[in-house]
Design goal:
Layout lengths: L6 H4 L5 E8 L3 H13 L4 E10 L10 H19 L1
Parallel strand pairs: 1-2
Length: 83
């Protein structure tokens, strides 16, 4: 399925942090969203988490190997955005 995104709706948005898990059913959508944001001129930080499933942020006990890097990456992106 091809998604068409109106760049006028995306342009002017603040910087974005997009996290994608390798085994997430929404993996391809995350890639397309990050690309659409970049194409609209939005600053995007895209992080991929190998070997992980959808919901790693909410499953910290089961996915601790990815949770800690994800939280660190999120904190760094937030710190950068607020600087």
């Amino acid at each position: 399925m091809t998604y068409v995104t109106n760049p006028l709706r995306l342009s002017g948005l603040p910087p974005a942090f997009v996290a994608i898990s390798e085994f997430d059913p929404l993996h391809d959508d995350g890639d397309r969203y990050a690309t659409a944001l970049q194409d609209a001129g939005v600053e995007v930080e895209l992080q991929r988490y190998a070997g992980q499933i959808h919901g790693i942020f909410w499953l910290s006990g089961a996915c601790s190997q990815a949770f800690d890097p994800l939280v660190s990456d999120l904190a760094a992106a937030l710190k950068k955005a607020l600087a």
